[in-house]
Request: fold
Amino acid sequence: MDRAFTTGLAIFALLLIAPMALELMGAGYLSGLLIKAMLLAIAAISLNLLIAHGGMVSLGHAAFVAVGAYAAAIALESGIENILVLLAITLAVTAAVALVTGALALRTSGVYFLMITLAFGQMIFFTLSSLAAYGGDDGLTLWSLATLWGSDVVQNGSGLYFVILATMIAAWWGVHRISEARFGRVLRAARDNPQRTAIMGYNVKRYQLVAYVIAAMIAGVSGLLTMQHAEFVSPALAAWQRSGDLIVVVVLGGLSSRNGAILGAFFIVLAEEILSQFLHEWRLLYGPLLVVMVLYAKGGLSDLLSRPAKA
Amino acid sequence: MSLTLFLILVLNGIQYGILLFLIAAGLTLVFGVMGFINLAHGVQYMVGAYLVFAFYSMTGSFGLAMVLSLVTALAFGLFLEFFIFRHLYERSHLDQVLATFGIIIFLNELAKVVFGPTTLSIDPPEFLSGSVQLTEQLRYPVYRFATIIAGLVVAAALFAIVSYTRVGMLIRAGATSPEIVSALGVNIKRLFMIVFGVGAMLAGLAGVIAAPIFAIEPGMGDNILIVAFVVIITGGIGSIGGAFVAALLVGLIDTLGRSLSVELLSAVFSPSVANQIGPALASMLIYVLMAAILIFRPKGLLPARGVA
Amino acid sequence: MSTFKASISALAISAASASSAFAEDLKIGMIVTLSGPPAALGQQIVDGFQLALEQKGGTLGGQATELVIEDDELKPDVALLKATSLIEKEDVDFVVGTVFSNMLQAIFKPVVASETFLISPNAGPSTFAGKNCNPYFFATSYQNNQNAEVSGMIANEEGFTNVFAMAPNYQAGRDNMDGFKQTFNGTVTDEVFTPLGHQDFSAELARLSTSDAEAMFTFMPGGMGVRLVKQFDAAGLAGNKKFMSVFTTDETTLPGQKDAAVGFLAAGTWAPDMDTEANTAFVTAFEEKYGYIPGSYAMQAYDTAMLIDSAVAKLGGDLSDKDAVRAAIKAADFNSVRGDFAFNNNHYPIQDFHMLNVAKREDGKFHTSFVRTIVENYEDSFHDDCRM
Reply:
């Protein structure tokens, strides 16, 4: 068990007892904040797979969260209540969209890949805005939510917190396994030197496409759970600024660390909450913080946290 | 659709295209010459609009306000370049995206703090405030015609500079082979600074021009920035000519697309639905265009010469 | 790391103490739009409410009142977040909001589900007036369609046979469009929906200029209305097309529209120059405090504060019995600046509607002016579907 693994376990343990602890302190409101952070972390974990291992920087990843949320919302509105069925639908729809957009996007690389993922993200945003029947620009309030074979255990207030926690742990572990397996090694080889990897007989584009689709599906699940928690979906979920936020989370947390995405997500959510208590215009601090971080703290939070140990 | 409506739409489309060109020109040069992705270019546009508002309130003269705004926008651009962007040229695109994203967040918030969150407006200058009788029922504001002419003048000037002056030659060379230019002993740092400064000033100029027509509000640069990226990718990175053609194309497609799509869809759907789907589909058009270019003609419509 | 932990503890403690607050304090959460083009409307609501609060010495119904103001930024997801914060973190007794109907729709569910009373000082969508009416929701403004329905009546009275209609594409816009079509006897030559926040009306005005319409009916609140009127004027259309609107040429937009709007027709429940004692007192006090003429938004917010004051006073400050609170609010036992005011079964108002036009005052300021009453004690068209 290496250090990163134990850090991860520690975080999960903390999150496991958090709801009870917060209730005791009379700050039950804060578990909503933790949910927000975990939902962000799930999406960030998937983007981490793309950026850190695949070397594919996508400026349209938030769109998959939105696709997942809307696929689930539309299915729910059509009468499908069972969360497991909704999960299957979300996975299927996001995989399909990712397959098509990914295949096209991967014909480019570098900054062109960045731009084309942005373009697809925008197209998804505008498509969702045009769904007049589902609220369009205004978004859709969900008057009934998903259930687990009739029970409301997966809804707010009961088990949703733990369902989200479990999903985050699953995503964390899943991406870890993928990156340790041969798939991950080929992906990283392709990231560093695509020609040499191709010469060795690997179909680089196929590996990258698979990674892209997997990342999209995980992001889609984050969307499904977001819908369940907020009881509301809107095209804003797909805005390019959200994709930018995801990149910030991943890099802030530390690209090279297994826990980077989670650290980044929690830091961002908690920092925003705390800063906004003191300063209504907290973004005046957040913006420069990003710049400083890029200039001086390249390894992100996980790097900063492990520095004392190295010294 | 009546001829009047079509005429208005074409004029609006050209106007939007010219505005896009002013923003895209700086962006494509900075990207082409320095390989620097500047997401903060959009706030440069916003800064121009707020500056002209501030100076106009102070001096009461649009002309004076415009000059002061351009000078300040240039200074501001150089300031950003010297203190922040200069350190990012060697870094990965990811780092550039992040840092400039942070600057967008900061400046949008600053605008909100300094000028307030409400939308501001200023009137066009007195001598341009009339309107021209376009058809027997409709008048079209003189100011809008003026912006088209101004934009064309700037475009022509830019062409001339880039094609016929030494600095222009260095810029074109820098866009295609920066290492060689540096090896030839040219002060690359100074060249980059000039390119960046000019780009920032052009974006600021776009903001000044747009201020009397569109709303002045925090975040106004964000969405037009994305469209500017569409323009430079479509036109070809580093190519001024490409940016011009692509900008007009995008401006016309977007403007005409919005109205036409609503008209077409109204035949099938109810007006409310058509009005929701139409603009959304039309908005997608320009991204479809960019995606197509990236797949079939990645160098762009009019690539900077020298790019194989 | 330790400062981080300290901050979290501080947060937890403050949250804890907030929820066990002094029982006699009254906390009201206000969520309105304070960013972007329509910020002026949100500001009027804040100003109107705060004027009432000040006149009552910082108390409502005898209870020391804290007002927490949040900006929904005209984004549904932000509105949802802020509303949830108000009911969960701030633990407010009432939520007053919103300006726009789509914002109201975003926050409606969590607020009423938490059994917190939601009082809208402006948005009055049809969604909650009929079968989805809710015991925890009250509107002190109007039902969105009503003003437009009255406009249709005005169009009939003025003898228009062809009208060009335009509204923004969201719930209130659609409501207003439907309302106008419901009562107007002539032909609607064009039904145009523009995006919310639309800036450039040249294409739509071009269509108007070539149509047979004698008049245009429109609903374009806030900054959209300012631009529309100015561009209408610049296009030279004022001569041959009558401009009829709701919430487009009002005290929030007239400072920007100025002379271009003089003489334009409107429909509404109130005008600042209505000659009643309560109204004159309100308008004078408002102008003195804020330096601008109040519009219907400020008036409605003022009435909302007075309504809450009357209800809380009736209950002696005890808000624990939700049914009693509801009854106290529904009684509407306060002096509305508008004159007659009562709640219908669906908790939307029953009030008089008038025809207004835009006038210029001697001191150069612009305002809407009362012309004549069109209909009295007007009920909305949806209340029958409400089973309350």
In short: The mean pLDDT of chain B is 86. The first helix of chain B runs from residue 3 to 34. The CA atoms of residues 147 and 153 of chain B lie 10 Å apart. The longest strand of chain B covers residues 131-133.
